[in-house]
Amino acid sequence: MRRKIVVGNWKMNNTIAESVELATAIAEKVGNDGVTCEVGIAPTFPALHEVGKVIEWSGIALTAQNCHYENDGAFTGEVSARMLAAAGCRYVILGHSERRQYFGETSRIVNLKVRKALAEGLKVIMCVGETLEQRENGVTEAVITEQVKEGLAEVSDITNLVIAYEPVWAIGTGKTATSEQAQEVHASIRATVAGICGEQAASHLRIQYGGSVKASNAQEIFSMPDIDGGLIGGASLKVEDFMAIVNAAG
């Protein structure tokens, strides 16, 4: 039985003080409400250390939003996986559609980051997803399959990997794939991973959905057999909304 995982991606929102306030409120809910799913939150880099201190007791996984594929060097503005591990991060989100869309990250770059993060002991949430144009052209499965295969190139052990399917057309738009549409892609991802890593590894892999999950649709989405939780954007910035989604996951 795969344990569901819900991670709040705060993106470029909240000062350190605001992040600590939000994290404290979420930690109190998660730590005291008998939550059974795994929960993570991903604040901005400047807030990681302070947020880590206030959530540690609750079991919430401190999560980073990105990292570089080198340990050190002349890469102004970048943060390495080993730095994140030293800061107390348990997970790092890699290949988010906004990184691909706005910062030109390719699946090859994502692969380098995945391999480095895993080597440094971090767990990885690797994101994949198609654009609206690609969905309308009927190439969703081909696009996702290619992203998964390229992202997992030379990755021999996926024990510490989570894949997040986030249709680009449903992020921040209010549009959401139907539970059946999401399930279809999740099943395809699992089949692709089975072809790469074997059926057993694929059966244990957790695959999140990350396309405008809300309190109103979370339970239906999470009830699908291949959907193992959510990567939550805007709804994770409000305690009650985020907790409603967490509780929907168990």
What does the model show?
The chain has 250 residues and is of the alpha/beta class. The chain contains eleven helices and eight strands. Helix 1 runs parallel beside helix 2, helix 5 crosses helix 7 (140-151) and helix 7 packs across helix 8 (179-197). It starts with a strand and ends with a helix. The mean pLDDT is 95.
Task: Give descriptors for this structure.
250 residues; alpha/beta; 8-stranded parallel sheet; 11 helices; 8 strands
Helix and strand topology:
Blueprint: E1 5-9, H1 16-32, E2 38-42, H2 48-55, E3 61-64, H3 81-86, E4 91-94, H4 97-103, H5 107-119, E5 123-128, H6 132-136, H7 140-151, E6 161-165, H8 179-197, H9 199-204, E7 206-209, H10 218-222, E8 229-232, H11 239-249
Parallel strand pairs: 1-2, 1-8, 2-3, 3-4, 4-5, 5-6, 6-7
Helix pairs in contact: 1-2, 5-7, 7-8
Brief characterization of the structure:
The protein has 250 residues and is of the alpha/beta class.
